[in-house]
Structures are given as C-alpha cells and as structure tokens.
Design brief:
The chain is of the alpha/beta class and 649 residues long. It has helices at 4-7, 9-22, 44-52, 94-109, 152-164, 185-193, 217-220, 239-243, 248-261, 274-312, 322-345, 359-375, 381-396, 406-418, 421-442, 450-484, 499-509, 606-618; strands at residues 33-38, 69-75, 80-83, 120-126, 132-136, 169-176, 200-205, 231-233, 516-524, 535-542, 545-549, 557-562, 566-571, 580-586, 598-603, 622-623, 634-636. The longest helix has 39 residues, at 274-312.
C-alpha cells in the first residue's frame, strides 16, 4: 500500500476493538470501522465469504445474522480463525466456525429468532485476505417470523442506526441488482444518516440474475444515485451453487469471466468484482482511519487525563477506613437532597422532554386538576332551589315569613362549603404521590447500594407521610374556619350593594373574550370515508369560541364553534384504544358540529386530557355530572385513530 506504518493502522484499531470488547464497553470512543448493511437475502454473507474464500457464515431462511459479527481479516502465512470469547483456541475447520457462531448467537438470543446488539468478535488469518475489519449486521426485515417480537423491524433498524450514525463508521450498503434501487433498504438507511453520501460505499449483487435486456450500468457508473465513494458490482454464488458446494475460487473465476464478457460491464471490468471490492475497502478503511486519527487521539488523551484524575482520588485508598465510608455516605445523601430540590424547583441538569414530573407535575395539579375538581362539584339548579325552599320553610315553621332568614342562607352555604373538603384532600393526595415518585427517581443513583437506597426511601417517605397528615389537618381546619362564620361584608360577596359594580366589571371583561386560551393540533375522526376520513386541524380556544384551521398559520378557518350552552363530560377509555377521552356537547340537545350533537376529544395521555379540560373550564365550559350521550364526533391529539367507545342512548 505505501509505507509500513499505514498498513499497521487496521491491526491497531483491531487491538482497540478487542480491548474494549473485553471490558464490555467502548469507552465512548467511536472507532473507525465498516458496517455491512442490507436487506435479507441481499447477498451480504456471500460477499464476506468471498473475501475469506471459505464457507463459514450461518445460512438459512429468515433472519440468520441475529447479532453483529465483528469480522477482522488479517493477512498471514497460514489460515485459521479465532473468537474473542474462545481465547487461545484456533479453528482450522471453518464448518466449526459456523457452528460456533450459531451456538454463541443462541446463547445470548435463544433459539426463537430474536436479536441482540452484543457483538461476536471473529478474527480470520489467511494468506488470501487483505487487512480489513467489517461489522456484519442483521438483515433488514419487514414481517416477524415465529416467536419474534412484533417490533422486530424497529429493533433491527435501531441496532443498525447505533453503528452507522457514527461519523467514524463507513457504510457498506449491499443491494441486489434484481430489485428497484430506489426502494433499497440499505441505501435508504444510509441516506438517513449520510445524506451527502460522503461515507457510503455501494455494493450491487446478483447482477447475473437481472431480467434479460436490463443492466445496472448507470448505477455502477455512479450516475443514477451518486455516492462519493461510488459503487462496485459483484456476482456471488447462487443458492444452487452453495447447496452443491461449489468452490469459491471457481465462483470468483466465473465472476471475473462474467464482467469481462458482459457487453454492459466489460469496459469497467477492472473496477468490478470481489477482489477489487476487497482492495477498495482496505484502502478506504486505511484512509478513513488516517483521517479520523487526529480527533480520535485527542479524544483518547482527554479521556485518559480524566481517568487519571479520577484514579488519583483512590491512590492510598484503604477500604477499611471508616472515615472514607462516612464521607462517601454523606456525599451520596447530600447529592440525593440536591437532586430532589432540583426536581421540585425545576432547575435540574437533565430535563425530561417526555412527560411532566416533579415540580411541574405539582404545578399542574394546583392550577389545572384542582380547579377542575372544584368545578365538578357544580350542583343542579333545580336541586339547589328545592333545598333553599325547604330550608326557608323549615326555619319559619308554622309562621309565614316576609323575608329570607339568614339561617337559611347559612345552612345552604355551609353545605356547599363542606363539599370543598373532598377535592382539597384529593389534591393533597396527588401532591404527596408525586413527591414520593420524585423520591424514587432521585434514589436511582443509589442502585449500587440497595440497603442505603431502601433506607433513604423509607425515611424520606415516612417524613412525607407524617407531613401529609398534618397538611390534611391544616386544610380541614381552614375549611372549618370558613364554616364557623359567613362574612357577608366581604368585598367578594356580591349582595345587593356590589351587584351594580359587578355589572360594570362584566362589560370590561367582555373585551377580553377574544383572548386566546389554548392552541394545539387535534384530529376530527368522525369525518366519513367518502369525505376523506379523519383529518388533523389546528385548534384555537378563546373565551367565546373553539375554532379550527387548516394549519398553524391560521389563514384558512374551517369552522368556529360558539361555547354557549356547551358542557364537558368524561368518556370511558376503549378496550382497544390507547387514547384518553372526554366529550363536549350542547345542553339544549342541539348539533355541535354539522349533523353531530357531540364532540369527543381524545389525547395520548391523561395529563393532556386534564390540561384541555382545564382550558375549557377557563373558557366557561363546565363539566356535567351525568348525561345521556349519543352521536359522537371524535377529536384526537396526535393523529387519527379508530375509537373503541360504544354507547347506546
């Protein structure tokens, strides 16, 4: 290749890979490597076997490669193979190599066609190979087979992405020529992480199986889907040749003859075939290692200094020193205290972008869940009038009164105030539960010390429970204080004196009716298939109406729903549905939207449901305690779905 130092680059990286695999980690260093990516039956295994000149990879139907295989090819005078997990054992029979790969795969994944990201390290010494390191990844599949999990496609994709998303990884995208290149799974994945094609090498297999009159000339000339590193065509053995134990040397001679004699490829025959591919990969990997070496060395030195600094703390360390243990214990307890405070105050270093937790969850409980629970106590007007009538009559006794007695007013008001106790206690319970959840999250860092974690959780949780009873007593005391005396002179009490002032304020409030309360994407699911089916719209909620637009630019309004006489009610979650739902309907039995009387709003989480209901509550759309419902219209947050709710009016 050039100088001896360049030839030693690949073996050097091989030693690093073995060292990191031996300790079970990569030390966060992205080693330069080549990942082989392709669909099932794309010919990946045949390409690798042609490199070695031996049959040594498992074959069969479905997913055969179920763990990444780190294949290190090393030029040597003799021919043998070694596994990292079988140190000191040399394999000269390559049938045994295949059996060992199958056994080691089953040891981790089992025999049910499952997959695992834990690699198998195989080193092959041979006079017929060039120094080269490749990672053979599982073939991309679409349909689970046997006992495979239903998300097998996503699992394989995630595993492949773990390797090819690294900038230090070259991608060997293997695609069969007898399939549409535009639909190549390998090239699609490569384009996702390498859109400019800077580190992708295309390999076109099965050129001899293309339909008569067709060829892949434009692809191999890098004209159709250009890659910076180009394409190389190969011809592997057919399944019949493999079953017939056709010698790989004869197969490579046939491959050479194919390119020299084919009219579409003979002008580029010197740039095609397995030997050329092996040379190109050797050169590309060596150059790639050379290019990434400065940054790699800098990162390695940085980590070495960091580890030296950490190791310095333990020089002269005595495990039996009680002072050391006490210091470490205090540091962990102090860290727990800091983490708990950060989660509540909202200044944590690691921000959760998936769901609300800690202080944010408690904030939602106070400002959304608690007000909603209070409004749910809304009583029936008819029932209230009946209670007032009975209270007045019972206080007057046999006499006929001219004025409403104060005792009747106090009896009714106190009965309503008592109802506040239940939502207040429920609010305390929800806050306590979130505090306990936060404690458990903060003790995750103490997993290495199970007893310390258990004791920390027990002590802090016991303290929270103790304060819970005191908090509830205090809340109930405040409610009892309100029950003990009804102050009708308070400025918030309307009465006759403040009625006129209240009417003036209401005119000012009407100016704020157009204020936007909430915006968000919702999907109307009840649109008939004839009219296009479920569609997603941008919704805007104000104090007067609920409007939806074509998109979030709010230029094309689709509908505006006035909020007059609307109410909200809960809806049971469907058995097959992953959504949480509630409904909007008109109390006067009028249609809410077109021919539909009801709107059912569904969200991915219960928190979203509570948030929307709280927003509607601010707009004056109150919950109803019970109602007969039918003719549902479905709205969902986050995409169309088929509601599993069934109701008979």
């Amino acid at each position: 290749m050039g100088n001896r130092g360049m030839e030693d680059l690949i073996p050097l990286v091989n030693k690093l890979q073995d060292a990191f695999s031996g300790i079970g980690q990569s030390c966060n260093l992205d080693l330069p490597q080549i990942a082989v990516v392709g669909g099932q039956s794309a010919g990946k295994s045949s390409v690798l076997e042609n490199f070695v000149g031996r049959d040594f990879l498992p074959r069969g139907s479905g997913i055969v490669t179920r763990r990444p295989l780190v294949l290190q090819l090393i030029s040597a005078n003799a021919e043998w193979a070694e596994f990292l997990h079988c140190k000191g054992k040399k394999f000269t029979d390559f049938d045994e190599v295949r059996q060992e790969i199958e056994a080691e795969t089953d040891r981790i994944t089992g025999a049910n066609k499952g997959i695992s990201p834990v690699p198998i390290n195989l080193r092959v010494y041979s006079p017929h190979v060039l120094n080269l390191t490749l990672i053979d990844l599982p073939g991309i599949t679409k349909v689970p087979v046997g006992d495979q999990p239903v998300d097998i496609e996503q699992q394989i994709r995630d595993m492949i992405m773990q390797f090819i998303c690294r900038e230090s990884c070259l991608i060997l995208a293997v695609t069969p020529a007898n399939s549409d290149l535009a639909n190549s799974d390998a090239l699609k994945l490569a384009k996702d992480v390498d859109p400019q094609g800077q580190r992708t090498i295309g390999v076109i297999t099965k050129l001899d199986l293309m339909d008569e009159g067709t060829d892949a000339r434009e692809v191999l000339e890098n004209k159709l889907l250009p890659l910076r590193r180009g394409y190389i065509g190969v011809v592997n053995r057919s399944q019949k040749d493999i079953d017939g134990k056709k010698d790989i040397k004869m197969a490579m001679a046939a491959e050479r003859k194919f390119f020299l004699t084919h009219p579409a490829y003979r002008h580029m025959a010197e740039k095609m075939g397995t030997p050329c591919l092996q040379k190109v990969l050797n050169q590309q990997l060596t150059n790639h290692i050379r290019d990434t070496l400065p940054a790699f060395r800098s990162k390695l030195q940085t980590q070495l200094l960091s580890l030296d600094k950490e190791a310095e703390e333990y020089r002269g360390y005595r495990p039996d020193d009680p002072g050391r243990k006490t210091k470490q214990l205090l540091q962990m307890v102090q860290q727990f205290s800091v983490d708990f405070e950060k989660r509540i105050e909202g200044s944590g270093d690691q921000v959760d972008t998936v769901e609300l937790s800690g202080g944010a969850k408690i904030n939602r409980i106070f400002h959304e869940r608690f007000p909603f629970e209070l409004v749910k106590m809304e009583c029936d007007d008819k029932e209230m009038r009946r209670e007032i009538s009975y209270a007045i009559k019972n206080i007057h006794g046999i006499r006929t009164g001219l004025f409403t007695p104060d005792m009747a007013f106090e009896a009714i008001v106190k009965k309503q105030i008592v109802k506040i106790k239940e939502p207040c206690i429920k609010c305390v319970d929800m806050v306590i539960q979130e505090l306990i959840n936060t404690v458990r999250q903060c003790t995750n860092k103490l997993d290495c010390f199970p007893r310390l974690r258990e004791e920390t959780e027990r002590i802090v949780t016991s303290h929270i429970r103790d304060r819970e009873s005191r908090a509830k007593d205090q809340v109930l005391l405040l409610i009892d204080v309100q029950l003990s005396y009804i102050n009708t002179n308070h400025e918030d009490f309307i009465g006759f004196a403040n009625a006129q002032q209240s009417s003036k304020q209401s005119s000012k409030q009407s100016n704020a009716a157009s204020q936007v309360i909430r915006k968000g994407w919702l999907t109307i699911n009840n649109i008939s298939i004839i009219k296009g089916g479920a569609k997603e719209y941008w919704f805007v909620l104000t104090a007067e109406s609920l409007s939806w637009f074509k998109d979030d630019e709010e230029k094309e309004k689709k509908y505006m729903l006035p909020l007059d006489n609307l109410k909200v009610r809960d809806v049971e979650k469907g058995f097959m549905s992953s959504k949480h739902a509630f409904a909007i309907f008109n109390t006067e039995q009028r249609n809410v939207y077109k021919d539909n009387r009801f709107l059912e709003l569904a969200c991915d989480t219960q928190d979203e449901v509570d948030s929307w209901r709280a927003s509607l509550l601010r707009a004056g759309v109150y919950p109803e305690r019970s109602s007969n419902v039918s003719n549902w219209v479905f709205l969902s947050c986050g995409g169309p779905h088929e509601s599993q709710f069934h109701h008979s009016a």
